[in-house]
Amino acid sequence: MSSFWTGTKVRLRGVEPADWEVFQSFDAHSADARAVDRLYPPRSAAWFRESTKTRASHGGDDLDLAIESRRTGELVGSLSTGGVDRRAGRFSYGIGVGHQHQRNGYAREAITLLLGYMFSEQRLHKCEVKVYEFNEASLSLHRSLGFVEEGRLRAHEFFGGRHWDAVLLGMTLPEFLDRWEFPEV
């Protein structure tokens, strides 16, 4: 029997308190930090230990998952959902893959595993993501997965001395099923 959370390249698992050092190492790459959130001042090991401990004990509708490489067993990134609205049937997510692990297909597979779960097991109908206009790699990835650009929030975020647009993308359940099938039960 195989796990729903395991693909050919990645395995999704819960965040563990011991993951803090890897998350701290990911934070050291400024361009990546901006691409997924924002650039923060240096944070202490104690901050990362506490933050990761909180993530590891997180529950509720939102998921906080670690992305592991199946080939090496190494933690390569993380993925978390947010804004789960069961009445409207939609959710959003954020993903980050460590700089040294990018361009290996980890994000693509992690996202498709997540979408399969949220659509087939949680009965949600639409996924929404926000990507900053300068993050061409993420925009290209999401478009190749079948996300459709739905709009822009102009001059929405401030990075590197200027304001940037946030590109809003979405995928509905029928659009997902045009490309993928639900796993067999």
From TrEMBL:
<dbReference type="GO" id="GO:0016747">
    <property type="term" value="F:acyltransferase activity, transferring groups other than amino-acyl groups"/>
</dbReference>
<dbReference type="InterPro" id="IPR000182">
    <property type="entry name" value="GNAT_dom"/>
</dbReference>
<keyword id="KW-0808">Transferase</keyword>
<protein>
    <submittedName>
        <fullName>Protein N-acetyltransferase, RimJ/RimL family</fullName>
    </submittedName>
</protein>
<dbReference type="Pfam" id="PF13302">
    <property type="entry name" value="Acetyltransf_3"/>
</dbReference>
<feature type="domain" description="N-acetyltransferase">
    <location>
        <begin position="10"/>
        <end position="174"/>
    </location>
</feature>
<dbReference type="InterPro" id="IPR016181">
    <property type="entry name" value="Acyl_CoA_acyltransferase"/>
</dbReference>
